Amino acid sequence: MSQLTATHRQKVELARRKIAQRLEIIRGRVEVDHGCNLMAQVDKAAIQLHLLNLRDCDDILNRVDERLVQREAERAASQVANDIGEQNELLASRGVKTEPAGNSFSRDGFVWLESKRRLSPDHIATGRKVRALHDRATWDGLRSKADNDNGSGETATFLPTEVSMQAKSEIAWLREHIVTSSGGSGPFDLMIAVCGEGVTLRTIAGCDDRRAIVLEGQLIVALEMAAVAFRRMGDRNAA
Q1: pLDDT tens column, 156-196
Q2: Residue 149 parent element (H or E)
Q3: Which H helix or E strand runs over 229?
Q4: What DSSP assignment string belongs to 173-202?
Q5: Which residues lie closer than 8 Å to 173 by C-beta, 6 or more apart?
Q6: Do 118 and 105 meet the contact criterion of CB atoms below 8 Å apart?
Q7: Distance CA 233, CA 229 (A)
Q8: How far is CA 62 from the centre of its chain?
């Protein structure tokens, strides 16, 4: 019986330590989130922890954590709204047309992430490689009136070159590498949508800002896997 009691006490102490660690982490987040008015709840959780009411303490911390995440999402949404004008100016300077779409605007998701420095220089470099590769792979022919061989001014149609075919092969190899590394095609599809096609994370997330933040982290992981794939691709081509 005494052994069982000792084991129970060890479990309780272990649970207390874990919650105590979480309490301190959340306290730090509350301290730097000025204006959140959540410190009273953190202090209340600390009292419950002292009384060993671990479940009550954990419930309070869950509510505080949810509110902190909500505030972060609200700030992100506000930042997006405030940046629309700046984004459109940047895109216009790069020749990307933006048109009203209800209360929003169409914009290039990768260009936005790059312009707001949400990605590291290495991630940007990899994203640009993906964009260039995607552009070459999706090129489906060139129509020209002026540069045809006979000079008649008639429209000439050229089939995709070896460049586009090679790009498609490299994209297939890139996809295989990421699927093997991650166990699924999700990271690759996300990267192609944002870096290749220019879809915004917020659009993919269905305008859910909290989901968009999660997708941003997943995109960074996908770009890191792609960087490894590009290095291996270079080694393979050099061999």
Answers
A1: 444 456 777 888 889 999 999 888 888 888 889 999 999 99
A2: none
A3: helix 209-238
A4: HHHHHHHHHHSSSHHHHHHIIIIIT---HH
A5: 229, 233
A6: no
A7: 6
A8: 24
